[in-house]
Amino acid sequence: MKEQLSMRSQDLSEISGRRKHSSFCLPTPKAVWWFTVSGLDSTVSGYKLTCLVHGNAGNVAQGWRTDTYRAVASGAPDKIHVLAFDYRGFGYSSGSPTERGLIIDGVSLVKWVLEVAKIPPERIVLLGQSLGTAVATAVAEDFAVSSNIDFAGIVLVASFSDIPTLLLTYTIKGVIPILSPLRTYPSLQRFFSSKVLDIWSTATRIRNLIRSSRKINLSLLHAKNDVEISWSHTEKLFYVAANATSTGLTTIQIDSVKGHQDLGNGGFLDTWNADGMKKISKEVVKQGGK
User: Fold this and answer.
1) Dist. CA 7–CA 38, nearest whole Å
2) Confidence (pTM)
3) Which residues partner with 172 through β-bridges?
4) Mode of pairing for the β-strands spanning 80-84 and 48-53
5) Long-range contact list for 61-66, CB < 8 A, 24+ apart?
């Protein structure tokens, strides 16, 4: 089957009870949601819809993003479909980005998928990249807590535990450090970290998500050569998630039970399976960072 990618805009204001609007490239007071769907046909057996939540830089039409859409769908183009959107303040979406606002945007997108497109949650995968990992986690937590909805899978690529912790090691393009030059002055680091408005506490949300879910398939993916977000964040999130499936497990106890596979030059894969209902995997590859 020849892969087909089409672009169109969809205003999801009907989900929030505001004015409904649908048009092509026409901004409205409510965000215009730009998305890409590759030939979605809900009658195809075994299809999956991947809701792709992108990172901080660029928008859904940025040069490399279309390559990402194709890569995600390439395994089975007739069954794997990709839905991507721009947050408020990104691309053609109106408004200003805030932590709460971006979570509302993500929740509204998934509500549109569930209520308008009529895609059941067991066929939906949330895939977040960088900043999108924090948004995707928050969205999954919201549905697990408020509606007891579990999705087919959650994939977090280059995730981080929270913004204040991230800023201690984060470098822009691997060159310009943010707070790491102040590592010898911890009081100054704490001062600047305390001024961060949007915390994005993914570690806390993952813990709550795991505990609130009846069934979950969480995949964490990171590259060792990621020069901006250290893979140590994904390492931490794996232990947080595994610990949340039980009570009081130490890192040593988790290490003694988890599955481990050495992938050679490819990196390694750790897995955690709690009663077959809560599956967590962490794959760290040697190459592939930003």
Assistant:
1) 9
2) 0.84
3) 176
4) parallel
5) 61/7, 61/34, 61/91, 66/5, 66/36
The tokens describing 224, both together, are 């060792």
The span from the CA of 92 to the CA of 24, in Å, is 11
What does each of the 290 residues of the chain score in pLDDT, given as a tens digit?
A: 334 444 455 555 544 433 222 222 222 333 334 444 444 455 556 788 999 999 887 788 777 787 888 888 887 877 888 888 888 888 778 888 899 999 999 999 999 999 988 899 999 999 999 999 999 999 999 999 999 999 999 999 999 999 988 887 777 766 676 766 666 767 776 777 777 788 999 999 999 999 999 999 999 999 999 988 999 999 999 999 999 998 788 999 999 999 999 999 889 999 999 988 999 999 999 987 65
Instruction: Give me 268's structure tokens.
Output: 């390694």
The tokens for 171 are 């470098």
Instruction: Name the nearest CA neighbour of 37 among 82, 87, 86, 92.
Output: 82
- Any idea how long the chain is? 290
Q: What is the rounded distance in angstroms from the CA atom of residue 115 to the CA atom of residue 99?
A: 24
Q: Is residue 288 left, alpha or beta, with left meaning phi > 0 and alpha meaning psi from -120 to 50?
A: left
Residue 253 is which amino acid? Answer: Q
Do 63 and 2 form a contact (C-beta atoms < 8 A)? no
Tokens of 236: 């931490």
Instruction: Name the DSSP class of 283.
Output: E
Q: What is the dihedral of CA 9, 12, 13, 16, to 10 degrees?
A: -170
Q: Is the dihedral of CA 163, 179, 156, 127 positive or negative?
A: positive
